[in-house]
Amino acid sequence: MQRIICLLMLAICWATLPASTQIVPRLNFFTSYTDNLFQTVERQSDWINQFYLDFDYVARDDVNLYYSGNASVFNEFVDLFSHTHRMGLSYLKTGQDRDTFYAGSEVAVRLDRPIYDYRDFIQSQVFVNVKRYLRPTLMSRAGYTLRYQKYANARDFSFVEQVGFAQLSTFLPRRMTLQARSELGLKSYLRQRQTDGFSESGRQGAVLQWVGQVKAAQSLSELAGVRLSYVLRRNLSGESRQVDEEFYDADDELFDDRYSYESDELQAALKYLAPLNTELEVGTNWAWRRYGGRLALDLEGSFIGVDVERRDRRRSLSLGLAKTFYMEQGWAREVDIEFEWLYRNTDSNDPYYAAVGQVFSTGIQVGF
């Protein structure tokens, strides 16, 4: 069934293209080493190899058809292997005064090894975004996304998500940009779960979350710039559905998504355009998370207190280096090489998640 789904998506992609179509492919390969794969006190290390393959076809100046596939291969934890395939169609219309209208749709499928097949899903989404300049120095954006995600083997967690946002950006003298964004997301589970013969409460049937962000970017010179942002995340109603840890990994992204916590987050980054088409970026992040409805445990698996919910303080530091080679001749148009180091430190009242870890990554992207 997995092979059939993959082949059908590829066949549809190819069948919709004219015989004379010129396809623009991109190939990415990343390999990473981490000394704490699961970001827990157990500190298990692994090598991760990730492959990405993209095909873009511009049917017209305003229409784009694309396919994107990726696979993750683990050296030690081989059962974590997964692959995802996406195919989409987008439409872009540019109006007067640099105004734009952008809309599209996408279907996707993710497939895992049998031990983790509860992650397998089929997804479809549609979106629409608009950009308009209210004044030459004031730009507005707004958008809406509707996503349907069905898990083949964990049906209690299938959901429909709606996300709408509005954003304002102002461009000030001395090359400074200020931005404010407000986003509202609603995640609704598709079916009601029965627990010990009783239906769950309505609080776990849907989660309404608001996200606010302010960002400032300042150009320091022709070659350097700095940005600073603050993100506030709050659940206005409902809670994420609780997981039975006898059957699932509670830390899996299937359950530990953005709706499972509230947070305050501060980000800062410095970017420098070095000679020889080289880009250097240093970034740092501080985040305070509160997991509503998820109680903190000690290393023995017992509650650390009555109704004490898990709280994390997360800090990270990253260093990235990227260089682009532009090819005048040959089979490739450009080649990008990237190196990144990431350090993460989590201080949690649940000692199992109080851990540090590092990730060393290198990658190559080839554009044809």
End-to-end CA span? 32 Å
Main beta sheet: 16 strands, antiparallel, barrel
Number of helices: 1
Rg measurement, Å? 22 Å
Number of E-state strands: 18
- Give the strand order, joined by hyphens, for the main sheet: 1-2-3-4-5-6-7-8-9-12-13-14-15-16-17-18
Q: What is the helix content?
A: under 10%
What is the residue-mean pLDDT, rounded to a whole number?
Answer: 89
Low-confidence stretches: none
What shape does the CA trace take?
A: globular
Task: Put the structure in a nutshell.
The chain is mainly β. The protein contains one helix and 18 strands.
Structure description:
- The chain is mostly beta strands and 368 residues long.
- The strands form 2 sheets. The chain has a 16-stranded antiparallel beta barrel. A two-stranded antiparallel ribbon has the order 10-11.
- The model has no long low-confidence stretch (mean pLDDT 89).
Task: Tag the structure with descriptive keywords.
368 residues; mainly beta; 16-stranded antiparallel beta barrel; two-stranded antiparallel sheet
